[in-house]
Amino acid sequence: MEKNTRLILALDVLDSDEAIRISEAVTGHVDAIKVGYPLVLASGLQIIGKLAEYASIIADFKVADIPNTNRLICEQVFDAGADAVIVQGFTGHDSLEICVDLARERNKDIFVVTEMSHPGALDLMQDAGEKIARMAADQKASGVVAPATRPERVKEIRKIIGNELAIISPGVGAQGGSAADTIMAGTDWVIVGRKIYQSDDPAKAAKDIVSEIKDVL
Amino acid sequence: MEKNTRLILALDVLDSDEAIRISEAVTGHVDAIKVGYPLVLASGLQIIGKLAEYASIIADFKVADIPNTNRLICEQVFDAGADAVIVQGFTGHDSLEICVDLARERNKDIFVVTEMSHPGALDLMQDAGEKIARMAADQKASGVVAPATRPERVKEIRKIIGNELAIISPGVGAQGGSAADTIMAGTDWVIVGRKIYQSDDPAKAAKDIVSEIKDVL
């Protein structure tokens, strides 16, 4: 995944035509497009290959199963044309390792969820976040996912993982996180959804965020 | 999901024709068929509707996202014809609650993963297992998933959740768990995969396990 605009689009739409239209519009303004299960279940796995014509694709599947099932999922997603898969770390070292090993073989990326920003993430995930970040660093995953809504946590996670791993940060825009603050806190890419895909002019919305990012670099 | 044979088939194959052939063969011998993302990604979501002609379908998607994404996933899976979805509890009360509420509205089931049986489950999930079981009970989910490879844990989980919730237990057969021991430990359904779907005679393999279960009831 090339680091140019430092912006990732979270393409949280369900309709494949809309997904393609928006992806085409933001080409060049985003480094990657993140898609989740809702779009893939609605459109079929082949939507990944179609969107890959416009940008690198990150499959945000929060993969959280036993090692063998994790591998079967990542294999299909990479085969479909995705460049990266987002996996949960709470299922443990072996579930993560099989994904990281597969990604390495294929020159692809795995990003590991360290913590999440919804209220329920405080129940059990919050305490595990730093352990998961260390696990991701030990296994040399490509990076971790840490919320833009809590820039102070991004700084903490950066201390744990060092500079070898990337941080990608959702929560910018409609969820309240600031692109500039999150970049200054040490994230590599900010992830923006509604502010771009619900805009009448997705390309302009993306360009505005890229300008905001460039201003603080 | 009707409790007749107390047997669930874990249909961990990738080919849709094979999935249909095996499902047809075991009709009447299993109460449900559990399918995961590898089959659904390979065959499309509509495979769920096709297999639902032969038994109740449990979508073992280990759903582990923010509440809104969890809802979007469960909606599509129920719309496709599944009777139940397996979700992770690790992501917290709100991520679970939105799934349970949706299932209740539609007269469907949610089963919550309390702990898993692969080695990495000891890293972070094991300690959270009892909290997750209590969360599932508080929210009146349909049941929990607890490993047949550790019948003593099934007993502990039963004490926590009481008799209102069901327990379904994977790990019987090739993974070493015993159907009889797991039923005696208090599980409602045992989940068997390879021993049935890799058999030359899946119907006979299923019938043999059902006999073993009936012997201890």
TrEMBL record, chains A, B:
This is Orotidine 5'-phosphate decarboxylase. The keyword Nuclease does not apply. The lineage of its organism: Archaea, Methanobacteriati, Methanobacteriota, Stenosarchaea group, Methanomicrobia. PROSITE patterns: OMPDECASE (PS00156). Catalyzes the decarboxylation of orotidine 5'-monophosphate (OMP) to uridine 5'-monophosphate (UMP). It catalyses: orotidine 5'-phosphate + H(+) = UMP + CO2. Substrate binds at residues 12, 34, 60-69, 117, 170-180, 193-194. Keywords: Decarboxylase, Lyase, Pyrimidine biosynthesis. Residues 6-209 form the Orotidine 5'-phosphate decarboxylase domain. Belongs to the OMP decarboxylase family. Type 1 subfamily. Homodimer. GO terms for cellular component: cytosol. The active site is at residues 60, 62, 65. One of its GO terms (biological process) is 'de novo' pyrimidine nucleobase biosynthetic process. It holds the Pfam family OMPdecase.
